[in-house]
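Write out the 3D structure for:
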Amino acid sequence: MKNLMRATVCLVGLILIFTTAASAGTDTYGDDYANWPGYPVSPPFTVNPADQIGSFPEISGATITYDAANMLQSIDFGLINPRYTSTLFINAQWDRAAEPYDQWDYFVQNGVFYSVSPSFTPSDYILVTCPPGDPTCGWRLGHPNGIIAGALTPQNGFLISEQYLPAGNVTNLIYTFGPGQIQLFDANTSYVIGLSQDCGNDVFLTPVPEPMTMLLLGMGLLGVAGIRRRLG
């Protein structure tokens, strides 16, 4: 009987350990966007298969890790021929039915972490422009690559480090976050993460539904509700 009890306790312990470990997560994304929805390439450059303009930089994708409570731990971007000025955008606990994908909560630039004002609107973006004296720079003009200072508040303790780590022909841009600081999502929400370098010649965004997709989804839900009412 004692042996049976010991075996049962061990089995329960193993199940708890496995469940806890399995509930932490790693999400990996490729670079699927030539530009963020709502910000078409301007002027109309030809976008190559790696979707950057010109020959560099190229963002190959990202790996996002979070703990068992969905607290953000790290974001690891793969960069080829990077520029070393990057801007990171985070929309945590995104309610896609109630807010646009780019209702950002947090912003990181040059290793400084900021919270973004709840009243943020697209008019608060800093958009890509050519450097002074170079009117034909060939950058991705008009694409967001920053947020105005008036919409930002510096926060201490959220970001542990921003590191560029060369690994062969790829440079890993790794953001590491403080424990328990950012709940990335919950049972009713998801998240959006975006990255741009200063020139905007390649940008990254986690998948978001296009406006037409959201419209069709909403119409479908209304249709289902109508059917239920008729059947009821």
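Residues 50 and 58 are 7 Å apart (CA to CA).
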